[in-house]
Design a protein that fits this description.
Radius of gyration: 21 Å
Distance between the termini: 45 Å
Number of strands: 6
Shape: globular
Structural class: alpha/beta
Number of domains: 3
Length: about 325
């Protein structure tokens, strides 16, 4: 523990969001960068609890007190090593995770919890900036070949983990680009696609092979054919069928499932054109107040909607 009294002396300070009128005019990420000094001060707030409940709150079991302390000491490379031991994609979780670790932080009982998610973000960004190897591989090959069907978060995580075990891995994706939900479901203002592309480049450099525009099943290569070519097949196909509301009018023109709307918007931003489902000048109602509803809200505002009403059911 680098600074035993840090949690008493230093207040929680997260990143500053860009002004609303500014960020609604583009699709860039919301939060501005923090200085190294500011981030290291936040690492000093960690109490290094005897029982680190933050680690129990983290589904990955990240060694949070360890990398918090290393950040405070400015030992960024070592912090990255600790983080990458348990987390394949800190640049995604550092932007998108609901941070149950912070809800579990003991400091949160009497004060504001440590900014764990942002510290994770800063650690991996430093790793990329310093040219560290962010994709784990094995020095020896297992001699086994594994196919992963689907390139969303689960498929990419499976591919990364399998490659680190020394297997030859190939990922098959029916869409025209790799990424699944990360590519077409999550808006640019939450995850700029350059961040995804940067990770895919690292995975490719580590020997993982990607096959976009390659459906598996009725419209393409059969599962039986894959099993003949590979020692194992991982199915990470996601959940792409919307849950529709059984109400009169649900099938009217202008009523869209959230992911249909978000995919159209993400493709439009990528291609620099108007979306096939454009909220510009329209009055929009969003049913649902969770993360996906919030993504639709931010997207509609950036498209220039006349009004947006969100209803939590």
């Amino acid at each position: 523990m680098g600074k035993p009294t840090g949690f008493l002396e230093i207040e929680r300070r997260g990143p500053t969001p860009r002004p609303v009128p500014v960020r609604l005019r583009d699709w860039r990420e919301v939060y501005q960068a923090q200085s190294d000094d500011a981030v290291q001060a936040q690492g000093a707030r960690c109490m290094d609890c005897g029982i680190p409940f933050c680690m129990q709150g983290c589904p990955l079991g990240n060694r949070i007190p360890v990398f918090n302390d290393l950040v405070y000491r400015g030992r960024w490379d070592e912090a990255a090593e600790q983080l990458l031991d348990t987390n394949n994609f800190p640049e995604f979780t550092g932007r998108l995770c609901p941070a149950p670790c912070e809800s579990a932080c003991v400091l949160g009982i009497s004060s504001d919890p440590v900014t764990i998610e942002r510290l994770e973000y800063e650690v991996i960004e430093h790793a990329y900036a310093r040219g560290l190897d962010v994709q784990r591989t094995s020095e020896t090959s297992s001699g086994r070949r594994v196919a992963v069907v689907g390139s969303g978060p689960a498929g990419l995580a499976a591919a990364a983990q399998l490659r680190s075990a020394g297997h030859h891995v190939e990922v098959f994706e029916r869409a025209d680009a790799i990424g699944g939900l990360l590519r077409y479901g999550i808006p640019e203002f939450k995850l700029e696609k350059a961040v995804l592309d940067r990770r895919l480049e690292a995975m490719s450099a580590a020997g993982i092979v990607f096959h976009p525009s390659t459906p598996i099943g009725e419209d393409g290569t059969s599962l039986a054919q894959l099993r003949e070519r590979f020692d194992a097949v991982v199915l990470a196909i996601g959940s792409t069928r919307p849950r529709l509301i059984p109400l009169p009018g649900a099938d009217l023109t202008g009523v869209y499932p959230a992911m249909t709307y978000l995919e159209a918007a993400n493709r439009a931003v990528r291609d620099g054109r108007a979306s096939a489902i454009d909220a510009s000048g329209r009055h929009v109602i969003i049913l649902g107040g969770g993360d996906t509803g919030a993504d639709c809200l931010g997207t509609a505002h950036r498209q220039g909607a006349a009004s947006v009403t969100q209803i939590e059911i």
